[in-house]
Amino acid sequence: MPGANIVRILDGNTFVVSEDTGDIEAAPNEPTGLFSLDTRYLSKWVLTVNGERLNSLSYDDLQYYEARFFLVPGVATHYIDAKLSVIRERAVGGSFRETLTILNHDEKAVDLEIRMDAGSDFADLFQIKDEILNKKGELYAEAESDRLRLGYRRGNFRRETVVSANQPARYDKRGFAWSLRLEPNEQWDAVIDVQTFAIGPGGRDLRIGLRAHGVERLALQQDLEEWISRAPKLNSEHEELAATYRRSLVDLAALRFSPLSLGGQTLPAAGLPWFMTMFGRDSILTCLQVLPFAPELSKTTLRILAALQGTRFDDFRDEDPGRILHEMRYGETAAFEEQPHSPYYGSVDATPLFVVLLDEYERWSGDGALVKELEVECRAALKWIDKYADLIGNGYIWYERRNTDTGLENQCWKDSWDSISYADGTLPPFPRATCEVQGYAYDAKVRAARLAREFWGDHTYADQLEREAAELKRRFNQDWWVADRGFYALALDPDGRQCDVLSSNIGHLLWSGIVDEERAPQIAEHLVGPRLWSGWGVRTLAEGEVRYNPIGYHNGTIWPFDNSFVAWGLRRYGFTEEAATVANGILDAATYFDGRLPEAFGGYQRELTKFPVEYPTACSPQAWSTGAPLLLIRTMLGLEPHEGHLAVDPGLPVGMGRIELLDIPGRWGRLDAFARGRLNLDDELAD
């Protein structure tokens, strides 16, 4: 649908992407249609009246889970009024419901043929993404007296879409229709239910527990209201910040995903349209961002990742004992092992981050029971860091895919093929070790030492972890420091040669605490210096590097999530003004996206573009972009749990005005935080 206005509604893993008329005509390589569990259940959904397509007057995406389209046949003009109007109202909530309303504004009765063409290619999301729709099973369509059944079967793998309506219709294999007569000023309504089924061996619906059988709009609305009411209340003189905050809470609610094994408990899915599923890294980082606002997501995420932790050596899935999964998929290509995401373990950062989240969650919640419950899994993750991730034997975390056909080449967060390079632009050989992952490992060991001492009663292990962390920090600051340029290398190659490019990864090093104190000022200066800082945010790769491209996926774009952790790291080392600068740039950018930050946007200088330029294929909404404003609010207010209490140390940008964050949940119950920013630079001089 090139050039068309795209309307998206979603509820966890179920989402609909359509034109602004509500129609769906999906090409094999377009992520449009009705999707659930990584499968497209509707690829054609086209409404006609008397054989004529409809035109859009306007549409509303009322809530994240519903939309309304106002349509007319033909093209209304200033001189010829439309005599008929059509309203399509739709909602998702595990499945899909659409209400049609047709109104006759003419002075005479009209005879109408209302038809909905319906079809499905049951494409796997990976097939769409890779632009290879090669179905090996059988598509079928069965028209019954009261419903249309569309299906796909391949061995025990079966998916079905069942369409029915409350008004008797004529069903055929390509859709359904009504013939009706509308009197002057008469209104006609029909409710269409679309149920999706993932059928396993024995005919069992695998979607049980996922609201598979019907949309309960009232329940969805009530759930959203309860979700927002549980979050802290933000009062701000900065109206755009308040709007962005609410948008983030709503999008976070929309992205909640309930895996099949959790019985309704939720964790954050990564992003629409490609990543509406469980990711290790993305889910963990999002949970870290939103801990002061939605702590329950962390508990669910930790439990499900622990339950699916690697237990064996599996080259196809890049699995090792103790390794935390990267991605879980439920579609056809995963079921038949045409790609390894069932689950796939090819990331090296999710495992140390799992330990980091467990500690941070306990520091906020006081949930020592979960720390004790996950002791075995936490120890296994730490063992993976030392035993299985150290491919060279020099104490660092390295990666090299064992699945050379469909595994990920780069297994860090910058996972595009060309994201890791030397200063001359060439790519290093494998295995590779990226800097931020070593910081995560350091942080994991420091935090695990606390858990071991306070909850597992193992002081010997705690002392060992602290010694290992101190040694890792010493060696890292020796091996990764690019002395003549004053920053840490992005990565090392297997010979120890530095990938000596300036990147945003150095901000993650501040967050982890692995940076030597005397070097931190240079890192802070780089992060807000002209090569990395665009005015909107910190670029992934510095201007002037050979591979720099302001719209290169990981080579010059700005990622809001990345910037939120950069700001958090700056605050950790006491660079309050620099952190406020980063926060202000990203929050300013959010206003140009109606409060919904995309996955990434262009790294152009602010003075050049005057507004942030969205990356062409960015996910939106995306979980860790949704979480970025929340972490930035935490960072600006200086919220940190400290010895069982909540510490508040505000550092707001100039012009931010007063911020109140009320009812912040934690082990302390609920507390309030207040801050006032300087109105302008004159206030600073007056002080």
TrEMBL record:
<dbReference type="Pfam" id="PF14742">
    <property type="entry name" value="GDE_N_bis"/>
</dbReference>
<protein>
    <submittedName>
        <fullName>Glycogen debranching enzyme</fullName>
    </submittedName>
</protein>
<feature type="domain" description="Mannosylglycerate hydrolase MGH1-like glycoside hydrolase">
    <location>
        <begin position="413"/>
        <end position="592"/>
    </location>
</feature>
<dbReference type="InterPro" id="IPR008928">
    <property type="entry name" value="6-hairpin_glycosidase_sf"/>
</dbReference>
<dbReference type="InterPro" id="IPR012341">
    <property type="entry name" value="6hp_glycosidase-like_sf"/>
</dbReference>
<feature type="domain" description="Putative glycogen debranching enzyme N-terminal">
    <location>
        <begin position="10"/>
        <end position="190"/>
    </location>
</feature>
<dbReference type="InterPro" id="IPR054491">
    <property type="entry name" value="MGH1-like_GH"/>
</dbReference>
<dbReference type="InterPro" id="IPR032856">
    <property type="entry name" value="GDE_N_bis"/>
</dbReference>
<dbReference type="Pfam" id="PF22422">
    <property type="entry name" value="MGH1-like_GH"/>
</dbReference>
